[in-house]
């Protein structure tokens, strides 16, 4: 059950049916808000110049609130998974105002995103200068009156690489992640808020604690309701072996959308 509707999965046609099933929506409905957060692969290293003309079009029912304060998707030369994610959701809700709030900062661990932020702890991963990111995100929602006056559809999360560089921090990943999810659900007043996260998969040579982080992500997906962990294997990357390239980010966005569809269609 999600957004007050329950739709039955029908084999491999589920996603197609999902896109067609919600071609209705009352004009009086509040905006539907999706949050995109995390670190550099959510910020995105996709090259805007490599997109087609169609991919550069912002759907008419969509508003972007980017982490830099821009309201347009292509006010910058790089992009993240939103380019392929957003059109699919806009097609699913063509008569609904959709707002995408993106707040992501490269190189940040979960210590930088802690709801109960502590400067000394954030400094363990050299993140003290970026400040309390979760608090910043909630402040963005409040500034635009999106808590209470809008419906929060889901949180899309891409993060974990930074934690995988520090044994002590990686060991805490499960506790820190579940604390973050609980805070989102409490502050957004939705105990069933969908949390869709991508599996961190940087090059293990530099990110030695990656298996620990990945196990924590898997455990979170297994143990918490309304959490979807998406596979990121096979996504193409830049030469650094960490950041997804244009094609990889487009596929990441498609996988985010498919995960949302799967949750909506689950019995």
From TrEMBL:
<keyword id="KW-0378">Hydrolase</keyword>
<dbReference type="InterPro" id="IPR052940">
    <property type="entry name" value="Carb_Esterase_6"/>
</dbReference>
<dbReference type="InterPro" id="IPR005181">
    <property type="entry name" value="SASA"/>
</dbReference>
<protein>
    <recommendedName>
        <fullName>Sialate O-acetylesterase domain-containing protein</fullName>
    </recommendedName>
</protein>
<dbReference type="InterPro" id="IPR036514">
    <property type="entry name" value="SGNH_hydro_sf"/>
</dbReference>
<dbReference type="GO" id="GO:0016787">
    <property type="term" value="F:hydrolase activity"/>
</dbReference>
<dbReference type="Pfam" id="PF03629">
    <property type="entry name" value="SASA"/>
</dbReference>
<feature type="domain" description="Sialate O-acetylesterase">
    <location>
        <begin position="33"/>
        <end position="260"/>
    </location>
</feature>
